[in-house]
Design a protein that fits this description.
Elements lengths: L8 H7 L9 E5 L13 E7 L2 E6 L3 E5 L5 E5 L10 E2 L21 E5 L2 E12 L2 E10 L5 E4 L8 H4 L8 E4 L5 E4 L4 E4 L5 E5 L8 E4 L2 E5 L5 E5 L5 E4 L5 E6 L4 E5 L4 E4 L6 E5 L4 E4 L4 E4 L6 E4 L5 E4 L12 E3 L2 E6 L2 E6 L6 E4 L1
Antiparallel strand pairs: 1-2, 2-3, 3-4, 4-5, 5-6, 7-8, 8-9, 9-10, 11-12, 12-13, 13-14, 15-16, 16-17, 17-18, 19-20, 20-21, 21-22, 23-24, 24-25, 25-26, 27-28, 28-29, 29-30
Organism: Agathobacter rectalis
Protein name: DUF5050 domain-containing protein
Keywords: Membrane, Transmembrane, Transmembrane helix
């Protein structure tokens, strides 16, 4: 889990190692200019993990958001590559050890949305003697600010006292909608970064999903909530126990409860079936589910019906909820590098910074 996330201590205490949405989002073909920050050829794509965005990539390069807030690139199209990460900075004289480096992102990440690369970040300011964080989203190429986070104007003073202008997470939910999480509120934004929906009862996980025209999230009392994006009516969906964390693919929602049971929920009839035990932390990728029971649990790969594919506990720095898929590999960013393995857990390795 990224150590630079704002106020993430609350989450890390609860979860001990967190969070990916296994749906890879690609955008329009684009041949990049080698003078630009993100070089390579082909489509800009994005691999998402549950607690953030993780990486963006094209046909040649993967750009990882590493633990030191510095973006590092890996040329996976070069078969002779030595698996070494390189700081994604064009200045050969740069020491890459402070915020002057162009690879540095202050408390934020890059993401791909509506065929463009954007960056969200947070700036610290002292207001009335208090250090506050202010979050913004900018278009990478032009530097234009497209969104500034703010406390909702109709939020009660009791709730607002625990809120802030900081951006904790950005999550791309579809080609047209992104979710922006603050301390207490969450906004859904359209492709022009206009607010189309807001709610204040956000839970500890930034997960959100759009399926069949409905928005789903986990609220602050561990319920899965469904919001109709036409009428904006909302309701809680019955689950087996409290929803600890959730993920989804194109057709189903998967959630774990306080008993470390993993369930598969159908959005159509809202029925749930248990598919695994000892799977408190997990992520759903294109083909498989990567799960762990916690500090003392084995790391297991399941198919989407709960059949065990492999035990990957020996892959020391490979996560479960913090894993994400790019093409035919699974990756996890850890403090000092990036771990990788095949989809079935074989051929584990590490790329170091």
């Amino acid at each position: 889990m990224k150590k630079n996330k704002i106020l993430i201590g609350v989450i890390s205490i609860m979860f001990a190692g967190i969070i990916t949405l296994g749906i890879i989002e690609c955008n329009n073909s684009n041949t990049k200019d080698n003078d630009k920050l993100f070089i390579g050829n082909g489509k800009f794509c994005q691999a998402k993990r549950l607690n953030g965005l993780g990486a963006i990539y094209d046909d040649d390069y993967i750009f990882f958001d590493c633990e030191n807030q510095i973006y590092e690139s890996y040329n996976y199209s070069n078969k002779k590559n030595d698996k070494k990460l390189n700081v994604n900075c064009r200045n050969s004289a740069c020491s890459h050890n402070n915020d002057k480096c162009e690879a540095y992102v202050e408390l934020g990440e890059y993401f791909v949305f509506n065929s463009k690369i954007y960056k969200y970040y947070n700036k610290s300011k002292v207001v009335s003697g208090e250090n506050r964080l202010y979050g913004s989203i900018v278009e990478e190429e032009s530097g234009k600010t497209v969104f500034k986070n703010s406390i909702p104007t109709d939020m009660s003073s009791e709730l607002a006292i625990d809120d802030s202008e900081a951006i904790l997470y950005v999550r791309v939910l579809s080609d047209d909608i992104i979710k922006v999480d603050g301390d207490r509120h969450a906004y859904l934004l359209d492709k022009n970064f206009n607010i189309i929906y807001c709610h204040y009862n956000i839970g500890k996980f930034p997960w959100g999903a759009i399926l069949n025209g409905n928005y789903y999230y986990i609220n602050d009392i561990n319920e899965i909530v469904k919001v109709n994006l036409t009428t904006f009516e909302s309701k809680s969906i019955a689950s087996n126990g409290k929803a600890f964390m959730a993920d989804n693919d194109e057709n189903f929602i998967y959630y774990s409860n306080e008993f470390s049971e993993l369930y598969k929920l159908s959005p159509d009839d809202e029925s749930s079936i248990k598919i695994a035990d000892n799977a408190l932390f997990f992520s759903v990728q294109n083909k498989y589910i990567y799960a762990s029971g916690g500090d003392n649990g084995n790391k297991i790969i399941y198919d989407k019906n709960g059949k065990i594919i492999a035990d990957y506990s020996a892959c020391v720095n490979m996560g479960a909820d913090s894993a994400f898929q790019i093409n035919d590999k699974i990756y996890t960013i850890f403090n000092g590098g990036v771990a990788y393995m095949d989809l079935d857990g074989k051929n584990y390795g590490e790329m170091m910074q």
